[in-house]
Amino acid sequence: MLIATYALSTGSERTTALVKTVILPREGERHLHGNASFTSAYVLRASVEAQALGHGLILLHSHPHSAGWQRLSDMDRNTESEYERVARTITKTPLVGMTLGGADEAWSARFWFDRTAPSWAESVRTVSAKLKVTWNDQLRGIPAVTRSQQRTVSSWGESTQKSIARLRILVVGAGSVGLDVAQRLAATGIEEIGVMDYDAVEIVNLDRMIGATRLDAALGRAKVDVAARLMKSAATARRFRVSTHEVSITDPAGVSMALDYDVIFSCVDRPWPRAVLNEIAYSDLIPVIDGGIALDTFRDGRMRNGIWRAHTLVPGRPCMACLGQLVLGDVALDKNGLLDDPEYIAGANREAPSRQNVAALSSSVSAALLAQFVSLTAHPGGRGVSAPLRYLLSTHTLEHSAAPSGPYCPYENALAVGDARTPIAEQREDWRAIVRQRSTKKATLRLRGLAAIEGILTRAIGRLK
Ligand SMILES: [Zn+2]
């Protein structure tokens, strides 16, 4: 048994307690005879220390021989409910109780909002190069394996499938890469996927957004709606839920929605949104899988090289800034709109933010990101995500980056600070205006007719067994 502190990470629907600091018992603060138990001296001192740090209090104990999500014995219940009031009064936050099942290292957790009964958590996530999740089956039922998933399940086993399928996954940016990633996650059997993007499909996107149609572009449909349609047709889960977020991740509203997810795919190329995701990965312990492509041409326009990268941001692995994939100076430029200002771009003798991508190579990027996801969640060979990867097209070489985790990195050092994170997001009108404008735009009668027919067909096909 042990006491630790936690910081809160508050999403729009979910609240997470991030385990922060362990407070070890001093001599005489723990009874070791008979049933180990917390002493009130230990709980009191730890509460005061937690309060000084601005944290909440967690009582942890183990059931050495049990496996899976642990419930409370009568004695556990009495202990936690007895100390609930002390912890809440001193720290001003609810007590958290956690139990470790010693046989398989599964954690369970509950909040104590009052002393009568705990509110059980839905899952406990352990985040490192390997993401490990213990699910509370009563709150998040075990997903049924469907007929269309048979080949997936035979590849990595039913227990991996049950664990992966329940993850809430967010894809930020529904462009060429994001759209592909989202569909393949749906086909894998993930039950809950969110897509976040405030842009609409335009005719210039059609060479890369595979699955988007001329009708989508003509109607100026939201990219998230197109992604949702394609995901629904690819989904293999019995209960599939897609959430569309027409917001910007650079807005506090977008950040709070992102905090509801277990894994985030970063499929955006601009510095500001990438900086926000880079922060969340460490401050809120949500693994962010990021990557991108850069194409290099000679002066005469011939291709010199193409480089695509994939890396997962988790504690112990370098962040985008340390990897050189995010230039912090560019975040301010992006915020102030300078990266869209041709005069500034020309004057500063630099290139506009990379919008390059070709359809033939964008699936290489999405494939690299999805492989990171499989390593993170299914741990092939007992390993988690690799060091950051770089693929050089001209020589077809795969390089493992040696970039170390930055010892003085402000992002990586703000580990598990949760709601105390440095605010990078800002409330803005610009993206809201784009979304509003789209909703008031009226389509021609012909386009509306086509959309109606398309809707009828899609629904009819969806009902096929
Ligand atoms: Zn860093």
Give the distance, in angstroms, between the N- and C-terminal Cα atoms.
Answer: 52 Å
Structural class: alpha/beta
- Main sheet record: 8 strands, mixed
Mean pLDDT: 91
Total beta strand runs: 18
Heterogens: zinc ion
- Helix run count: 15
What is the helix content? 25-40%
- As a percent range, the share of strand residues is 15-25%
Strand order of the largest sheet: 13-12-11-14-15-16-17-18
* Backbone shape: globular
Q: Could you list the spans in which at least 5 consecutive residues all have pLDDT below 50?
A: none
**Integer-rounded radius of gyration:** 24 Å
Structural summary, described in words:
- Helix content is 35%, strand content 22%.
- It has 465 residues and is of the alpha/beta class.
- The strands form 4 sheets. Strands 13-12-11-14-15-16-17-18 form an 8-stranded mixed β-sheet, sandwiched between helices. A 6-stranded mixed β-sheet has the order 2-1-5-6-7-8.
- β9 and β10 (131-135) form a beta hairpin.
- It binds zinc ion.
- Zinc ion binds next to α13.
How do the helices and strands line up, and which of them pair or pack?
Elements: E1 2-10, E2 15-23, E3 30-31, E4 37-38, H1 40-53, E5 56-63, H2 74-91, E6 95-101, E7 106-112, E8 119-120, E9 123-127, E10 131-135, H3 150-156, H4 158-165, E11 168-172, H5 176-188, E12 192-196, H6 214-219, H7 223-234, E13 241-245, H8 252-258, E14 263-266, H9 271-283, E15 288-297, E16 303-313, H10 328-335, H11 342-347, H12 359-378, E17 389-392, E18 397-400, H13 410-413, H14 430-440, H15 445-462
Parallel strand pairs: 5-6, 11-12, 11-14, 12-13, 14-15
Antiparallel strand pairs: 1-2, 1-5, 3-4, 6-7, 7-8, 9-10, 15-16, 16-17, 17-18
Helix pairs in contact: 1-2, 3-4, 5-7, 5-12
